Predict the 3D structure of the following.
Amino acid sequence: MQTDSKDGCREIARYHYYYYYYYYYYYYYYYYYYYYYYYYYYHYYYYYYYYYYYYYYYYYYYYYYSYYYYYYYYYYYYYYYYYYYYYYY
């Protein structure tokens, strides 16, 4: 690469032009690549924890109402138990 003529200066300028062109090209390419990568990565774990807590509260209320259902059934059973006990005896 010559530097003592106008052609050499143009060659150097052309070299730096393409060098910075591809530098910024790959820079923005990887920038947007990692941007969308972390974007979908973030939303993936966001919906993951969303459904995790959804099923967590689902089973929480499931056992919660199951407990009261069992308590109600228990109370109902002994209510009629004592009812028939006092009725027949």
